[in-house]
Amino acid sequence: MDDARIAPAPRPELVSEAQRRFFGVNGYLVLERFFSPECIARLKTRIDSFWTERKPECPLTVDCFEDYPNGSGIRRRLFREVSAHSRAWPYKLNDTHLVDEVITEFAVDRRLMGMLTELLGGVPVVCNTLVFERSSQQPAHFDTFFMPSKTPNKMCATWIAMDPVTDDNGPLFYYPGSHRIEPYRFSDGTVKANDREYPLAEAHIAKIIETHDLKKEVFYAQPGDVFIWHAQLLHGGSVIRDMAQTRTSLVTHYWTTIDYPSAEQHIVLGEGRLLLRKGHQQVLADAEQAAIVKFAAGLETPPDLVEAAPPEFDPNGYLLKNPDVFRAGENPYVHYLNHGRREGRSW
Fold first, then answer.
1. How many angstroms separate the CA atoms of 122 and 154, rounded?
2. What CA–CA distance (Å, rounded) separates 43 from 105?
3. Among 276, 294, 312, where does a domain finish?
4. Does 109 reside within a domain?
5. Contact residues for 84 (Cβ-Cβ < 8 A; gap 6+)
6. In whole angstroms, what is the distance from residue 181 CA to residue 192 CA?
């Protein structure tokens, strides 16, 4: 990578004591104008090129609408196959850092990684990146519902703004201090969501907002601003009033080497900058998804394998997120214990 295009090497104590206290109390930090206008222009140009230079071999996936707002909702598709019109509506482009150096430079910016190391108390490992050009319009949620760290609170996220954010283009909203509330747990005892119980989690969110008198705040970002948030900060995307306006952002989630200590699990970029070694997101046909659910329901796994896996391991979720395991006819417990754990696969 061209070091002239990214921030200087980290210095000791990149996070001030005041910032540390603020993050502990509120669960977020705002870094105003962290990236220069030149850097942001370069990043926006690169995102534009993803759409204008799509190649047949592109492995990326995108979560987008076939039609908006009257379609069947957001679905995951191969990016190379979606209509260019999908760009005019809300979408989420997954894991561009796995194929593009420019995205990677921002996700592992040296100053940013230094600050996250201090806030997390461990070396960050990029576990995913998400490109948005419009608000997700996602209701209030905790990121731990979808990608919890193995060690509690050893995950955080960053949001790099590339457009001015207004009430019309769907700003990010959040509830300061919500990260200090006891996490909601599903029936399996974990914080990771499942579809069946998600309505209960949504009711819980409404209840804690009222019970703890949480106050919603909105991030009116300017290009170059960075928003860092705690894994348990309650947040979401506001409704878009003007679909013609973009509010482009790069979101990155980080775990730490506390949970992923093996060198085999990392793509090493030097100077403590690490990416999780992982494959691209998978796209499932409806028939295949139904087949996976049926296969998982009929599994008969020896008790010793079940005990060897993490208590929260979900074989159905593992197969849905790793359909290559299903296609190979492998038991998800066997595959995870022999390969998936080392590869950092999710479930």
1. 8
2. 10
3. 276
4. yes
5. 51
6. 16
Asked if pLDDT for residue 1 goes beyond 60, the answer is no
Is 281 within a domain?
no
Report the distance separating Cα 248 and Cα 101, nearest Å. Answer: 18
Which secondary-structure segment (H or E) carries 201?
helix 198-211
Residue 284 and residue 319: Cα distance in Å, rounded?
11
Q: Pull the structure tokens for residue 247.
A: 């509010």
Domain encompassing residue 330: 286-343
Confidence of residue 107 (pLDDT cuts 50, 70, 90): very high
pTM of the model: 0.82
In this structure, what token pair is assigned to residue 106? Answer: 């921002």
Same domain, residue pair 63 and 161: yes
Q: Residue 120 corresponds to which amino acid?
A: L
31 and 147 within one domain: yes
For residue 323, the surrounding DSSP H or E stretch is helix 323-327
Burial of 138 (0-12, 13-18, 19+ CB in 10 A): middle
Residue 296 within a domain:
yes
- The rounded percent of the chain whose pLDDT value lies above 90 is 64
- Closest of 90, 82, 89 to residue 51, by C-alpha: 82
Q: Which residue has the tokens 């690490």?
A: 274
The total number of structural domains that make up the chain: 2
Q: Can you tell me whether residue 51 is helix, strand or coil?
A: helix
**If you ran DSSP here, which 8-state letter would residue 336 be given?**
I
What would the pLDDT profile of 35-90 be if each residue is shown by its tens digit?
999 999 999 999 999 999 998 889 999 999 877 766 667 888 889 989 898 999 99
CA distance 121 to 173: 26
Q: What is the pLDDT of residues 180-218, one digit of tens each?
A: 999 999 988 889 888 788 999 999 999 999 999 999 999
Q: For the domain that residue 253 is a member of, what is the CATH number?
A: 2.60.120.620
**Residue closest to 256 by CA, chosen among 153, 154, 142:** 154
Q: Which residue has the higher pLDDT, 270 or 109?
A: 109
Q: Are residues 158 and 13 in the same domain?
A: yes
Asked if 301 contacts 178 with a C-beta cutoff of 8 angstroms, the reply is no
